[in-house]
Amino acid sequence: MINEIKNGLQRRKVKIFLIFLLCSFLAWLVSRLSETYTSRTTFHLVFTNVPDSLLMDKASKDKVEARLRASGFQFLAFNFNPKRIQIDLSELDMVESSYYVPQGKYRSQIEKQLSGSMSILDVDRDTLFFEFLPLFEKEIPVDLNIGINLGPNYLLEGELEVDPDTITVKGPKDELAGIDRVSTLEMVLTDLTDSFRTTAALYKSESLKHTVYSANSVQISGRVFRFSEKIIEVPVEVINLPEGTEIKTFPNVVSLLCKARIEKLKEIGASDFKVVADYGQTKETRQFLNVELISKPESVHSAQILQTQVEFILKRE
């Protein structure tokens, strides 16, 4: 019993000792990391504000080494998350078609992006050199690669709307030379019974490595409506008759199967359509004329002539 108590007390003393040891270590670590040190670190460069007329192809380096005076905490943070420095290229220097940023310029940009408790003692003395490609641009139309499958008794009103219907492409001259149009990726919409609006991505060839689109997708919308059908009897008008002749057709009216909104069908009649038979296109040996619908109201989606030929009798005066 007494031995068990002694062992328990001893284990408790060990735990207390370890806790104090850990606290002492943390206090020492915080104290050491709070001190100021001088050491080297690496900055990763991110190039921004490239002139609109140029495309950066290569940079002589994307990292620079610097000797800093900073706290231990700051150096520790660099080890886990390397510092990224933005280098502004809006004011490039140029000599003999070579673009560069001298060490003095990018050093000052680095200093502005460091906290006030850090200071740069030294930085790579290398000048940053860049290779650029001249950029050109042109506008090209967007082609749709979309399939529309409507639900039973539904129709598409008008054309599909595309926004934007043209885009601006910017890139090297040799890449733009082969681009006249851009197409959407293939898409199929099925069983549509309501008007819709959807996004379609634009296809971009892998060969266009340096070409940029002003938009990578377009909005496609369409108006879908439920239709009804109506048969309308329309008189046949014969055109291009020879002088001094009269003609009589059998029948003298043809049936049109019209598809439109119900409310629109109620408003239309025979006078809104024009059906003609062209005598000038008929051979003398034939006894019938071909019938053609040449005008219909815009509100009618489709109108089908159910009888495409009529017989006739020609009389000479």
Automatic annotation (TrEMBL):
Organism domain of life: Bacteria
Database matches in Gene3D superfamilies: 2.170.120.30
InterPro entries: c-di-AMP_regulator, YbbR
Pfam family, one: YbbR
Protein's recorded name: YbbR-like protein
Species of origin: Poritiphilus flavus
